[in-house]
Amino acid sequence: MSDDPVIEFTGFIKACRLFRENRLPEAEVVCTNLLRKNPLDQATWALKLQCLSDSTYVDELENEDMGLAETFLDQNVIAPSARPGTSFQRPKTTAKGINPILRPSTNAGRPLSGVVRPQSAFKSGSMDQAVRTARTAKTARAVSSTSARNMRLGTASMAAGADGEFVNLARIKLPKYAADPQVNRQLFEYVFYFVNDIKVAHEIAGIASKAAEFEDYYWKNQLAKCYLRLGMLQDATKQLQSSLQQRKLIETFALLAKTYNRVDQPMAALRTYAEGLDAFSEDVTMLTGMARVQEALGEYELSINFYKRVLDAQSNNIEAIACVATTYYYGGKPEIALRYYRRILQMGVSSPELFMNIGLCCLAAQQFDFALSSIIRAQATMTEDVAADVWYNIGQVMVDVGDLPSAARAYRLALTHDPDHSESLVNLGILRHREGRTDEARSLFGSAISKNPLMFEGNYNLALVCAAQGKYHECRRLIERALEAFPDHDHCKRMLNSLKPLYEAI
Amino acid sequence: MGDLEDGVLHTALGELNISMATETGEGNERFIMAHGVKLEEKLWVDECYLFQDESIAPIFCKPKLIPLKTITTQKLEQMQKEQMEKLQVPEGKEDDTVSVESEGAERDDAQPSTSETKEADVWTADD
Question: Tell me, what is an example of a GO biological process annotation in this record (chain A) (predicted)?
Answer without folding.
Answer: olfactory learning
